[in-house]
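Dear colleagues,

For the upcoming journal club I promised to circulate an example of a predicted protein-ligand complex. I picked one with glycine because it came up in last month's discussion. The inputs are reproduced below in full, followed by the predicted structure.
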Amino acid sequence: MRILVIGSGGREHALLKGLSGNELIVAPGNAGMSTLAKQLPIDATSPQAIVTLARDEQAELVVIGPEAPLVTGAADALREAGIPVFGPTKAAAQLEGSKAFAKDVMAAAGVRTARALRVAPEEGAEGVEKTLEQFGPNYVVKDDGLAGGKGVVVTTDRAEAAAHAQAVLEAGNPVLFESFLEGPEVSLFCLVDGETVVPLLPAQDHKRAYDNDEGPNTGGMGAYTPLPWLPEDGVQRIVDEVAAPVAREMVNRGTPYQGLLYVGAAWGPEGPAVVEFNARFGDPETQAVLSMLETPLAEPLYAVATGALADLPPLQWKDGYAATVVLAAEHYPASPAKGDAITGAELDNPDKVLHAGTARGEDGYVSAGGRVLNVLGHGATLEDAIADAYRVIEGIEMRGSFYRKDIGRRAVAGEVSVEKH
Ligand code: GLY
């Protein structure tokens, strides 16, 4: 099958690796992907440009990696052109594009989530202060526009919460204040086709930049899968209590969801409560999760794109665990340095290293983004998988780069647990 993947990060590198065996095209891609796919430029913000490229390349399936093209209607344009696409319509992608919309859907579907209040840009500093009164001691402040998983500040410092809210309002977006959800977080990626929901393995991301969950929020610094601490029925409960009711509600609204629904949930005393939805695969959890999938990835993605997910045989998974550790550039996330040379023995081995933000320099790879590489590890135990990833990352050199040294450490030490009710 000829498959066009839209995007350029580590998630898209993982998608290409999972789709290998097919004729692959990636747009725009990054330097590390050239052995897996033909690379072409694209204006990914233009649905029409994506349709034109898909037609020119005779793509039989288009897989859209990031949220921005989905929210601008790329999947709608492809469907109208009769090209199978993995990714929800513009209306359905509002589950990620507007946090307020997601809250409305959850209220209608009876899904547990945080209490939220929204402040519009015209309400200004006064609106922020009045709303902050109603929250704390943990403040959760979200950009109610698209922020690629990076627009959230969680803090006990009221002044920091107010400053983030002000910055979001000044950028012209509404800001959402939420109550803090207790409990460890789960990222569960669900294939959704109308009312049919098929979960992938559950994963946990590490969103803060530095060890011990310190420093600013990032797009994600590392992840592991599956979750040894999750109750045995944990995945099924997230499907039954969150993904399936939301999928049904989207069908009832006449905007069925077809693509990947990323459920970000906190597992509190009552079970799962939704922190956020995304309309796409998560990054970097996908890099670990898809490395465990034995079923060829094209089968479930094509089934979703053609409305045949209900007929898909059960997905097959490898035994054991996978972990991924992100190598970040100096000064990530505030102002990542670019153009630094990267060296290491495994840079061209996609079983071990996926490229997130790299370009070709004169003598090899150079950094071209905040998150530069995603290093993968596998093992029979979570401890082995994590050790494997750190063994590989220690062999990579890049000036100013850093990575978290504690990915999955609390889970290995048995320090992550869920409250039973
Ligand atoms: N890993 C967080 C995200 O993809 O938004």
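Two points we might discuss: The chain has 13 helices and 24 strands. The first strand starts at residue 2 and ends at 7.

See you all on Thursday,
B. R.
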